[in-house]
Design goal:
By secondary structure, this protein is an alpha+beta fold. It contains 15 helices and twelve strands. The strands form two sheets. Strands 1-2-3-7-4-6-5 form a seven-stranded mixed sheet, with helices on both faces. Strands 8-12-9-11-10 form a five-stranded mixed sheet, with helices on both faces. Helix 3 runs parallel beside helix 8. The chain starts with 5 loop residues before the first strand and ends in a 7-residue tail after the last strand.
Amino acid sequence: MKKTPFELVERKGGVSEFHLIHNGLKVLIAPTAVAPVATLGVVYRVGSKDEVAGHTGATHLLEHLMFKGTRRFNRDKGTEIARILQRIGANFNATTWLDRTNYYATVAVEHLETPADIEADRMRGALVRDEDLDKERSVVLNELDRGENEPFGILLKGLFAHAFIEHPYHHPTIGWRGDVEAIQGDTLRRFYDTFYQPDNATVIVSGDIGEQPALDLVERFFGPVERGPGRRPQGTIREGQQRGERRFCEHRAGELGFLGCVWHIPEGLHPDLAPLGVAAQILSEGVVSRLNQRLVETNLCLGVHASAMESHHPGLFQVFATLAPGIEHADVESMILEEVQALGAAVPKPEELARAKVQRRTDLAFQRESPARLVSALTEGVAIGDWRVVVDEMAHVAAVQAEDVMRVCSQYLKPLHQTIGWFVPESDPESGR
């Protein structure tokens, strides 16, 4: 009898986790026969948090270079990755975030071998050439230029930079301009060898394919991949407790004002994330939510949104508002803080809690609407630290009580722990008018 190359780790909620014994690769299989398509994703447990000072933006630049060629798929052979995937009608992309980098493709199920072949080859066979770096560096610098004209992006970058002083969540995923301009190919190749290894990756397959055929596919293409030479650094930089309000103001050319308020909260696997998520729903989800009633329905703001960040390390509870023309930032800020503090001073009404929990559970149900959505959700679960959070979150939300919402708001959303940012639009920022 043939010895299986996989170790079954767990089955839960329609998802099965396996461990490819030979090289340490983790595998998640989630069959969903909603259409004759399948999505294959690869998530590497490396993000901008893994960058060091002077090398910010390395993760994002490397993601760009991963499309420029591998030993088998490259322009010299006429086998460019994008062209091959386009030829089979794939919907494909890659993204970089704080805690992870992911690559995915959704294809007709009979073409699933193609993205599997590509992903397996670039796991250890990417070329990472200097000439490609020079071209992609220009692309990323153009992205940075565009970001300087996006008010929300400016505000978000400032909030993270002020809220996180010690932790690498401080710097933007795209990196600081000076680092992007200076980073060298040797640095990216070392970064690649350190983090792009099978024992630092998870392959996720979902769609109209059975578990055994999916495992056979993974074994065929990823089984031969050897572990890389790099050793990943150990240890985590922890952010110290914030002991006073921080704030900043950006005066830039623009038409609309934006405002953001953030507070430190625990990591994504902490049990308090469920009630914090429900609190965000109560504040901003739907027309009858507290901040919509207070700010949008009264024409003070064009939009408002609250969320509890789910991240591998402690993150942020965030509230953002887009101000209507002529409205003062100070007035909107005062109203947001009043509503946030009120949620920590008294339990929400039963109808508020029930509505928020239904809204949140509906959002979670949409994650299983298609193979692509499910792979995306599982990707974020892997990045947080445990894919099972995707399966368990529905029950966690259902168990949230009104007292839980009040407790977490009182505990985490304190004035001493808040960071506030304003984006103030001006016709001529240099003159102060």
